[in-house]
């Protein structure tokens, strides 16, 4: 026992808290491996890669019951000195593969030295992303050939990967095989390989002589009906190197999904045209992202793509015609992973493009990405997640069960079909307040911190001026109009006789003046209200349908996602009746959750696999054929609702009990129309 | 019990002998499945494919203790009648899926109705090939889409394959996915699919609406240094549909292997040129085979390729430079399977090209194919297997252990480097007999049954006449020359003074006149003898080296393979000393064993996988660096050998104890030269 006490030392790793005794002289990297501590190394402990940096502590650590002597680790050795000279080692840092344990010690593993390091997400409630990408780089020493044991060079490389990295079932393609022998000899039997996980093991997809450092990158792409948004990420760090977006060029074939499906139905070869258009745009986008990040296309080894079912099918080259009519049959609902080259995308020759699973004929891979980002299946509270786009994808559930549907909101929330509507961009009104006394509005625009009634507003906004109103602005505008008594429960805007000059006549209806600058008048017309009510009623009806299905009459939490959802005011959304009643502090915005989900799937292959299982278990509800959806829709054309109780809202706001005359004297038109897309 | 007796019937299947009781009314196909009898069905019992034909017996079967009543099976039904009318059902045949068991019955499953039917090989000692190819066709009924259970069409196809055919882990590529929905609907939810086994499960590689019959084909190709030989096979029956061969166009870069390796070493891009040449030739050959068989290139789903290591590397696009010097490192020794399109071969778009494993730097995939055909690892007797080509691959072993080496015989056995040498083709001398009294030769040529001293020989041979001598002819010639005292133990041809006018002077040596027709003299020169002795000594030395390694001084069985080996005379081979002494009746010819091995690997995927394991365990001996090889070589330059005993040969032939003068009066030149390739 006393021998053990002297020949072994206690080592405690932080932040994991893992501890154990190791033999005197054990390198820190080896100790970490013995104790199951996540300490990175690309070169396998040869003092080349410097990925295994640690920060040893010195002095007393009462918490751990240890006092660390100054000589608890071996002194700085030649390898560390050379590394420090050439590339610089931060004060207090040691190379884990060089420093040997000579006494009891506490060793901190900084985040960047962890293999499965976490990529921190900004929102407090969001889980961090654990790095575990499908492609990784490893340095390996390969045995030299022996004519009496004539295994091939590749078989010896595979054996080395198994022995040095516990990587089994390794395959190789012809391009690497053709360069293998020359590379092994150029690197003097030391090479760096890029390995890509496949369903049948690992594939060596790239090889460099000696120790080689390069960025290996991946793409996360959200193919929206209107815009395509892409992030280029460093697969070793999770860092976003570049982000860009562009309009989906398929718009020239049809504004919304159904018009694109119709285009495919009516024009032979139409689906192929749209497939070509989106792939070509994506390929250009990849080039632009690579240029922005200063990497080569060949450094991109993986792409994860999400999109609604029509985008999903067109991207994969599948005619979406079956998605245009019941039973809305998907060609495939499962996850797919294919060579990127088969999609016309120029990345590394062995790069793979993965597309997340679709959930149902109207609930696509983008919704799967939202589920991956927001994890409805992991919630304690009954959570309603709404991803707002041209179609809204809606999840309702918690640990016990998750339901999903999609609802055809139309593009009104994205600024289309609204007279002064525009996409969220500098100059767009995003906040609105209406004085209940004067019924006059003040606004704030994107790119400017001042309200329009504050001094210097015009100068701060700049030469472009106030250009229009974006989705979150129009929601606030309508909610404020309702709160200020400018608009009644049915959405009817009052006349000048009642409201004075804040409204003006347009044909037989009234419009509310939101902002005037010079000649330009930004107003909310009666038709604008109608369009927004269509959209919000569809949202609400979808949510209610899921609540019916689950047999609940309220939800405990609401998450609003979508580019739009990042800026929404919970109070105003509730006044408008976009969402069911719920404690206000339990309403949050998740930003571009689909894009985040794509990024998680890119950076963590297990999560990518897991979400396919999760969405398979999601209970799907098809709104298009559900009669109750129509009833809920009609009742939701009121502001906030025909009859649903809003007790939480009532605690924060009083909605005036007013009723204006309609132009025709009859009911509003909202009960007449329905469309999908 | 009596209920069971009346409600169930005894059914006995032949030839398997499997028996059991099944419920009355059970279709024969279902009974076969219950009892584990191998009865084919592509349509899954729908009366479409007719693959499940059986021959029921009637009357008394004392051997089985059963008497079969005339009504033991249900009467011919409509489906059978329709099939009989349209396509004809042989007398006594029934469709197994339609005929129901109504009494005790004996049912014969004809060979063509077995899934794993056996492809009979001609040689008595060869094992039959059990059909189990990597690609198969199946008919399947797919559930229609249901919007409330929104799995994709592909996922429902996969579920149907699992339920109806127990096929799990099914994937699909983009081309089939793009056609999937239209095909399912065109076939009214019945489709025929071609499924290909991959390392990660099965892939749907082709789809047709409804029940579809087509040949699915595969290629077995032996890429020799000199010739490429290919068979096109029907993967469902194992039938060889077409066979063709062509010269390897790489010959223009070098006659033998080493000169091609040198070409690659000396000319930048030289390896690429040779890769291109062989792939282009193969692609043309595939086109020619498809045309001969009347199938489309797209009907070919799989190719198995074998060849020596240099051919293997060049075919895969790997520079063979490392094979030119010790340690003769292979780029890969394991089996590879890649898309045929990556090799420039135009077959089905999803077709795979498999190349068998290499055994060592000089023992290639062709040797693996020989091992697959001849199964040294399964032999009771200690067996020597020699595959004769430009290089000879040699196996020695039995159940306990197998050794392998290659030996550089050179192209003499293929007719090169021999004055009148030619490839085995009509007009070539293939048999030789020399009268020991007159020392005159009679010959037989390929394509003619008569000996040259029989009446009508000249007419029977035809206008082309006797054109030269092929490998088996030259072996017989030399052995007969030795037996008739024309040539001594050292290979020296006697002078005219001793032998008379059967020899004539050429420079300072003598040539033996084998055949004269008009102006044309076909003779064996002293140099011809030298070339053949180099070749046979290399063969023998390789075999002896393996015997040394195994610690044995004789073998129990010899198998001669190679296109050449098909025609060889065991007695003459032994007189010449090509092979060690062995009972004559234990020497057999295996024909083109490499080609046969390729065909086995094509038709049976388990065998293809198994041989990779077998060759991994083979003990490799590298002749190029083994000093004893040189010693054995020199001793084997005698006819039959300097000092090895030939007791079995002595029982069949007496070799005259003579010794002629050499031209220079000294030793022969055989001890001076060695070359590889």
TrEMBL record, chains A, B:
Residues 9-113 form the 2Fe-2S ferredoxin-type domain. Gene3D superfamilies: 3.10.20.30, 3.10.20.880, Domain of unknown function (DUF4445). InterPro entries: 2Fe-2S_ferredoxin-like_sf, 2Fe-2S_ferredoxin-type, ATPase_NBD, Beta-grasp_dom_sf, Corrinoid_activation_enz, Raco-like_middle, Raco-like_middle_sf, RACo_C. It comes from the Bacteria. It holds the Pfam family RACo_linker. This is ASKHA domain-containing protein.
């Amino acid at each position: 026992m006393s021998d053990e006490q002297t020949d072994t030392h206690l080592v405690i790793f932080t932040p994991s808290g893992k501890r154990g005794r190791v033999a005197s002289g054990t390198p820190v990297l080896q100790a970490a491996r013995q104790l199951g501590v996540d300490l990175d190394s690309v070169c396998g402990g040869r003092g080349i890669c410097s990925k295994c940096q640690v920060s040893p502590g010195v002095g007393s650590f009462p918490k751990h019951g240890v006092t660390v002597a100054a000589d608890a680790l071996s002194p700085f050795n030649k390898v560390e000195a050379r590394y420090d000279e050439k590339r610089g080692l931060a004060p207090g840092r040691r190379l884990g593969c060089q420093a040997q344990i000579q006494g009891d010690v506490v060793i901190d593993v900084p985040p960047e030295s962890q293999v499965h390091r976490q990529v921190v997400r900004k929102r407090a409630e969001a889980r961090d992303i654990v790095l575990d990408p499908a492609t990784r780089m490893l340095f390996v020493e390969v045995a030299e050939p022996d004519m009496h044991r004539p295994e091939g060079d590749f078989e010896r490389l595979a054996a080395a990967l198994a022995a040095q990295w516990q990587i089994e079932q390794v395959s190789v393609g012809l391009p690497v095989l053709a360069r293998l022998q020359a590379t092994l000899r150029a690197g003097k039997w030391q090479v760096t390989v890029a390995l890509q996980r496949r369903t049948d093991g690992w594939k060596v997809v790239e090889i460099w002589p000696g120790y080689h450092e390069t960025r290996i990158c991946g793409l996360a792409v959200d193919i929206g009906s209107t815009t395509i948004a892409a992030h280029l990420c460093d697969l070793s760090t999770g860092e976003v190197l570049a982000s860009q977006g562009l309009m989906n060029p398929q718009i020239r074939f049809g504004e919304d999904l159904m018009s694109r499906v119709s285009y495919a139905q009516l024009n032979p070869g139409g689906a192929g045209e749209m497939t070509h258009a989106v792939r070509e745009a994506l390929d250009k986008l990849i080039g632009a992202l690579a240029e922005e990040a200063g990497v080569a296309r060949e450094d991109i080894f993986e792409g994860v793509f999400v999109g609604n079912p029509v985008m999903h099918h067109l991207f994969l080259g599948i005619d979406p015609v079956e998605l245009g009519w019941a039973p809305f049959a998907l060609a495939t609902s499962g996850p797919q992973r294919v060579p990127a080259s088969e999609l016309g995308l120029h990345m590394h020759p062995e790069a793979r493009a993965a597309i997340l699973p679709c959930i149902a004929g109207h609930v696509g891979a983008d919704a799967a990405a939202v589920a991956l980002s927001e994890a409805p299946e992991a919630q304690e509270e009954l959570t309603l997640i709404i991803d707002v786009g041209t179609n809204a994808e809606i999840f309702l559930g918690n640990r016990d069960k998750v339901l999903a549907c999609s609802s055809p909101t139309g593009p009104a929330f994205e600024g289309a079909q609204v007279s002064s509507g525009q996409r969220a961009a500098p100059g767009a009104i995003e906040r609105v307040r209406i004085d209940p006394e004067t019924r006059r509005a003040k606004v704030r625009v994107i790119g400017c911190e001042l309200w329009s009634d504050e001094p210097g507003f015009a100068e701060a906004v700049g030469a472009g001026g106030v250009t229009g109103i974006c989705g979150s602005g129009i929601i606030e505008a309508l909610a404020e109009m309702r709160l200020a008594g400018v608009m009644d429960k049915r959405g009817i805007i009052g006349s000048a006789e009642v409201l004075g000059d804040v409204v003006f006549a347009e044909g037989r209806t009234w419009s509310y003046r939101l902002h005037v600058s010079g000649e330009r008048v930004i107003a909310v017309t009666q038709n604008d209200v109608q369009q927004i009510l269509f959209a919000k009623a569809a949202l609400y009806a979808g949510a209610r349908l899921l609540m019916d299905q689950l047999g609940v009459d309220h939800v405990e939490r609401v998450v609003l996602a979508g580019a739009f959802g990042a800026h929404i005011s919970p109070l105003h959304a509730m006044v408008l009746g976009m969402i069911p009643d719920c404690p206000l502090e339990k309403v949050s915005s998740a930003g571009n959750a689909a894009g985040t989900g794509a990024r998680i799937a890119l950076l963590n292959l297990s999560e990518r696999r897991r979400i396919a299982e999760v969405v398979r278990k999601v209970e799907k509800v098809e709104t298009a054929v559900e009669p109750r959806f129509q009833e809920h829709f009609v009742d939701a054309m009121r502001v906030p609702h025909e009859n649903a109780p809003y007790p939480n809202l009532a605690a924060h706001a009083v909605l005036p009990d007013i009723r204006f005359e309609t132009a025709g004297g009859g009911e509003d038109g909202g009960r007449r129309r329905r469309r999908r897309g």
